[in-house]
Amino acid sequence: RVACGRNATLGVVLLHNAGDTPGLARVTGDLLELSAADAVLLGATTPVRKRSSPALVLCGRARANEEAKNIDLGAVLQLVGGGGHPRAAAGTTRLPSVKNEEDPDTAIKAAANEVMDKLVGAIRSQLDPATGSADPDLQAAGQARGAAAELRVPRTDVPLRGILFDMDGTLTDSDSVHFEAYKATLARLAPELPEITREFYDKEMSGQSNEIIVPKVLPDLSPEQQRQVWVQKEEEYRRLTSDSMQRFEGLDAFLQWCDSNSLKTIVVTNAPREDAMHTLTMLGLFGRFAKHVVIGMECKEAKPSPEPYLEGLRKLGLSASQCIAFEDSPSGAKSAIAAQLRTVAVLSSRSEEEMVATHGCVMGVRRFDDARLLESLREQL
User: Fold this and answer.
1) Whole-angstrom Cα distance, residue 350 to residue 327?
2) For FRET with 81, which of 68, 175, 193, 216 sits at 20 to 30 Å CA-CA?
3) 21 Cβ contact partners less than 8 Å away, ≥ 6 residues apart
4) Selecting from 3.40.50.1000, 2.40.160.20, 3.40.190.10, 3.30.450.40, what CATH number does the domain 162-172+247-378 have?
5) Domain boundaries, the chain
6) Which UniProt key words apply to this protein (predicted)?
């Protein structure tokens, strides 16, 4: 821990030869939660592979408290090509080549420590300009940066090869229909319960499997009775969506972009298979994804376990560092991030700040043709 002025403390961690690090955001958030620090800066150097130079992957998280209120991690990480929110930011910077070094490992450590020292100094100058170096680049970054405009998908040292999509709330805004289906089913089968609110649904139910939701809401029923509840709920959902459903804005163009760049795609969902096939049919995506879908309830565990996304990676024949995931719910994001996937939040029901700062996503989009998203993905092909 480093004292940074004005009663604030910064936790600094540097991992060497850490390998693929797409789960860095989640680890950083866990460190902040478990420590007494007001902010955490985590860096991880990647091993040197043939024809590649070393890289330092960085992630920062800060508390929403009085001590950390002047910390702007987005501006700090912008100094090394990254960016983000004041309280949540990430970036990747290339380190000098060690091709001709007698001791490459020592050279990488020295270069990484130099970058970390620069970033710590920048944070100190934000908290107390009198004790830190007033870096003009840092001041310019803080003034020019829009709070979310600089968020990017962090790079890994291998090209992007695959995309894993959640379905409900991600390919289509179907969460509102699931809410109405649960509301109607519970009113009919359990009228003694208070009517569920959208706030309760978003917090306790969205993104989770029926096997988790129904026992939580109706714990006194037998397993068979609970199963009948979710069966009737899914029948209600299919009835409500029997006419048509709309794909999210920009999805068609994004799928075409994936095809033109030979990116593999797959759907990973907690929906029962019958519902998944129904939704894909209503969206006109059955032909594309019918044989490329993972059903969480058919895995060892559904989301928020990483198992569905790990199965998705197995089906694609790719590693997590070669892929990104799209998710809309905290439960789904937890699943994808636990599978070491860089995860982009689809902002169908939550803010970018919440999904990045609280749930570990790398950025958020409201459309699949978001310019920031496409720009950062093109750089990784």
Assistant:
1) 11
2) 68
3) 15, 44, 46, 57, 156
4) 3.40.50.1000
5) 2-144, 162-172+247-378, 175-240
6) Carbohydrate metabolism, Magnesium, Metal-binding
Q: Are 155 and 379 within 8 A, CB to CB?
A: yes
Give the phi and the psi of residue 168 in degrees, each rounded to 5: -65, 125
- Tokens matching residue 293: 């879908």
Report yes or no: 4 and 10 within 8 Å, Cβ to Cβ: yes
Residue 223 neighbours by CB under 8 Å, 6+ apart? none
Residue 380 is given by DSSP the state T
**Parallel, antiparallel, or unpaired: how do β-strands 83-84 and 39-45 relate?**
unpaired
Angle of helix 223-240 relative to helix 210-217, nearest 10 degrees?
A: 110
Q: Output the pLDDT for position 103.
A: 85
Measure Cα distances from 110 to 24, 38, 77, 118 in Å.
21, 26, 19, 12
Per-10-residue mean pLDDT of the chain, 381 residues long, equals 68 78 74 87 78 77 84 84 76 80 86 90 77 46 45 83 96 87 89 86 81 86 87 87 84 96 97 91 93 94 93 96 94 89 90 84 92 91 91
Q: Which fold has domain 175-240?
A: DNA polymerase; domain 1 (1.10.150)
Q: Which residue has the tokens 């714990």?
A: 219
Which of helix, strand or coil describes residue 120? Answer: helix
CA–CA gap between residue 44 and residue 364 (Å, rounded): 23
The amino acid sitting at 349 is S
Is there a contact between 231 and 213 (Cβ–Cβ < 8 Å)? no
CA-to-CA distance for 246 and 173, rounded, in angstroms?
8
Beta strands in 72-177 (DSSP E): 83-84, 88-94, 162-165
* 323 sits in which H/E element: strand 323-327
- β-strand 8-15 against 39-45: which pairing, if any? parallel
3-class DSSP state for residue 341?
coil
Q: Please check whether residue 185 is in contact with residue 236, taking contact to mean a CB–CB distance below 8 angstroms.
A: yes
Q: Which CATH class is domain 2-144?
A: alpha beta
The residue type at 114: E
pLDDT of residue 75: 83
CA distance 124 to 135: 11
Which pTM value belongs to this model? 0.65
Alpha-carbon span 307 to 296, nearest angstrom: 8
